[in-house]
Design a protein that fits this description.
The strands form 7 sheets. The protein has a 4-stranded mixed β-sheet with strand order 4-12-11-8. Strands 3-6-7 form a 3-stranded antiparallel β-sheet, with no helix packed on it. A 3-stranded antiparallel β-sheet has the order 5-10-9, with no helix packed on it. Among the domains are: 25-119, no CATH class; 132-213, Immunoglobulin-like (Sandwich), CATH 2.60.40.1080; 298-399 and 407-431 and 449-487, no CATH class; 585-603 and 620-626 and 644-733, no CATH class. Helices cover 38% and strands 10% of the residues. It is globular and about 100 Å long. The chain contains 27 helices and 19 strands.
Length: 734
Amino acid sequence: MTRGEFSAALPVVVSSASPPRAPSFVQDVTPLFTRLGCNQGACHGKGAGQNGFRLSLRGYAPEQDWAGLTREFQGRRVNPAVPEASLLLQKPLGVAPHEGGRLFSEGSREHLLLLDWIRSGMPGPARDEAEVKELEVLPGHRVCKVGQTQQLVVRARYSDGRVRDVTWLTRFDSNDPALAEVDPFGLVHVRRHGETAIRASFQGLVAVVLVSVPFENQVDPELLQEQANPVDRAVFRKLAALRIPPSPLTDDATFLRRAYLDAIGVLPTPAEARAFLADASPNKRAQLVEHLLQRPEFVDYWTLQLADLFQNRRERDHDVRGSKGVRSFHAWLREQVAQNRPWDQLARDVLTARGNCIENPAVGYFIVTVGEHRHAENSEVVASVAQALLGTRIGCAQCHNHPLERYTQDDYYHFAGFFSRLKLERKEPAKGATQLVVSAPDPNQNKNPAGVHQPRTGKFLKPRPLDRTELDVPVGVDPRTRLADWMTDPKNEYFSGAMVNRLWKHFLGVGLVEPVDDLRASNPPSNPDLWRCLNGEFVSHGFDLKHVMRLILNSRTYQLSSEPRAGNETDVRYYSHYQVRRLPAEVLLDAIAQATGVPETFPGYPVGLRAAQLPDPGLKSYFLSLFGRSERVTACACERNGEVTMPQLLHLQNGESIVRRIRAPEGRLAELLKSHRPDAELVEELFLATLTRRPTAEEYARIEASLKQCGQREEFYRDLFWALLNAKEFAFAH
């Protein structure tokens, strides 16, 4: 051993060594293909293969890959007589033409492994071969500096007790290559400050290691001292570790507007704003939070969130519920929110819904997600339930093993088995209500165990949850009840975490895990302590949604200013300041209607109904579609779009709807002008109605000067109102 100018010799005695073994196709050859990229989607792993040669994506079907290599086209890809002449070696060596280029050199470890495998007779997958049970990445979580490197070591633990160093066969990826890049051999290069995860993938298992790179800021400890509740302790502990200073507390006017929009989806009225700003009590913010959680608008707004989650809409084709059925499910969800039903109970009611869609509106969830499929396990319901209630994306595992997580095709179809006893007796509304019956499509099969056949292997798979816990589902029992038991168990962090993550993203703008419905071991939360804190609070308080909301709204973290300070300008993950974001489509439309005093009209609904109260996302509305409302076609949270686009800006600035509202004789501005109130009061009223604050002295001075120069008082105030409605401060939560 040599280190700098020092060296030492250590005697090593090897005894009882086993004879050299032939390389394993599953444990050696397939992982090598994965590491080299041969079985990836851009190469031979794509559905049609590449130049006549196809491998299963990332090796999910090793038996097929072995047959393709050794038997297809008379085994032309391998040459047992002259192994060195095999195309399997000649192409990646660059000797024979290869679109993938040269992948390794002669005499390299990769070359010798494949050569040894061919010389050993090209052994295929063995049924009794030990399986990898766990991956370990050493040295674990590391705190590094910019410019530093760190070599990772990956060890695999097998079912037979064997532990093996598989670093050279492991595929490495970084969740943020701009922060920390990792080369194919596990050497991490730190590029900039922050924190990210390095993923190590081997034989379908994934392990992660965090790399933390603190900033070089000197953070004043006083900035981290004021903490309102456990949320702040977890957030500020992370900020201290990364040396990121938090922004100061936001002012009362900004907090008021923020809390109203985030909690109940409406603006405070000018009267409510004046009352709050005049209140001198020290706990007025906490009192406001309690008030908002009891408002009827709270029920409306969170019914909208759950309706998105449960995809409450009419079917795209051959709809059997109609608008009446959509409204019925919406009303049912609203009742649950109004009663503050615990999330585990509400989710269980939807997951195990049965009967007809009139008497039990929650059946509508299965009408949409199962659709016209005779076999529910082949429909969207499998992936939709996992994504909506567990925050887990397993849809890709229907065709191949999950590329970023341990979920296999078998895992997907085991999970699908929970829906193998769903039978929809669909009827046109005029002929009666559609019924969900707990039965196999063929009732004669009800005497057999529930489950499905894996399409690739033909193997019968019984219902089993995604953590591979064995569950007993007796014949005659609805498998969904067993799924609900497992799912809502307080120990199931995916169920509680999926909702906690959605709530946190809703109020803070960025989820602890992003995307918000992509929870997996290879995508760890940005703040593990906060993750555990929120999950613990949610579960220990009986899955009470309002408890978590109250905790977040009352935290100093939520009440920080959106204005960055020196040292946290680039932070978008650790909540050192509030994240500015555009208002959701329904909230923005309602804000325009409320500020102008002219309600939006929706065909078939009474005048005055707010956009956030609409049950049916299929209702035609150019504004709502333009600003990214959810169409509820899939379970993905990405259906709701918060991006800012040029057509949106043009619509707000040049569209007739805002101008019409400003000029409306029954609108707010017309009423104010009729009142002959002093200009100072009129300007204040417009500012409070739109921005929930009074104008600054500088703003009022400029307005006053412009008003004196303008000969048309009414036109001036129309222009001022238009400017306020088109201000970023109006269209964004901040």
